[in-house]
Amino acid sequence: MLGNAMRQVDLRRPEAGNWALILLVVQNSALVMVMHHSRNGPTEQGTRYLASTAVLLVEAIKLLFSLVFATYDIRKSHPSSSASHIATLLRRSVFAPDSWKLILPAALYTLQNSLVYAAISNLDAVTFQVTYQLKILTTVLFSILLLGTSISSRQWLSLVLLTFGVALVQVAGPLGSESWKDRLTSLIQGDLLLEAFEAPAPGAVKGLLAVLSAAVISGLTCVYFEKLVKDSLATVSLWTRNVQLSFFSLFPALFVGVLWQDGAAIARDGFFAGYKPIVWITIALQAIGGLIVAVCIAYAGNVAKNFAASLSIVVSYTATAILFGTPMTLAATGGAATVLLAMYLYHGRSMSRTSLLPTSKERVSEKASKAIFQVLPPSR
Ligand code: C5P
């Protein structure tokens, strides 16, 4: 029964995964710029909004939307049920006995989101983007450690190329502030890290530690969430899982972030101190991003999700060049080509399929496929 349902889900929804990946490319391109500006741009009367309030609001918005989608799913499978029966079914599915399994990822994602704010407040956008891409590698490492996934040498090569290509686009592209040669040399020699530790710009060490920790947590949490969702997709919908995730995230976001960490400041200045349109745009983009990430993880897989995030850097680079006429450097264009080559290599055999990005079935070796998706039929 589980096998049939999984098969149905998998065959019905591949396009959902593809659309989510495309949306993620767009969302990711916008988020880092907007978020960086919201944390570092000019403020009114010197008051900057508190990251903890934004983290809480993002979770509340995601909870609301996930509830709507979960209700829609239940309505679809029980078309003749009354509203109160649907509410009962929803409550039962959200507070099912296994809902506690979402407590850990909820706590970790809340921590990750707070770390991302800390990192972006203390680092320039380029350093943040390059370093955060380490989540590509941490995701694969946790897949190997926790799920027994095995990666072919060709896929390893593609992951290294991907990381290298992303770094090159970032440091050599128009978004890099210094001369790209200086920056690349610093990056290769490790001077960027040394600089941060030896003669740190205010908060640089904090920013680097925050982004490195966020990359590690991202890898661990998304692997855990993917396994959890896919193991139970036949019986628990993705949106129910997301309601559970956001619900449990509210507690650390409220008690640890808002009350414990920033309680005094909020009591003094108010919850919405420093809020202006760019802050609301950041919050909306993050909430939408979280929902898109959920669909990506469930229907396309984590590695595909990370490939999409990397592709967004190439898209930003190309779009800035086309729209604003910023010069394209040879090195950054080479980096963009390297990202595309890495995607081709990872994807393997064919570029003629509907998705350019690797699907969840392609991303694991046969051994891991057996472990995680025992019930799926061969992909072709
Ligand atoms: O950078 P990364 O891809 O790990 O980001 C994951 C983001 O997506 C986090 O902000 C997390 O809160 C959000 N997310 C979500 N719902 C999920 C999975 C992740 O909102 N089911």
UniProtKB/TrEMBL annotation:
It is found in: Membrane. GO terms for cellular component: Golgi membrane. One of its GO terms (molecular function) is pyrimidine nucleotide-sugar transmembrane transporter activity. InterPro entries: EmrE-like (IPR037185), Nuc_sug_transpt (IPR007271). The chain crosses the membrane at residues 16-37, 49-72, 132-149, 156-176, 207-225, 245-266, 278-300, 307-324, 330-346. Keywords: Membrane, Transmembrane, Transmembrane helix. The keyword Transmembrane helix applies. NCBIfam families: nst (TIGR00803). This is Nucleotide-sugar transporter-domain-containing protein. It comes from Immersiella caudata.
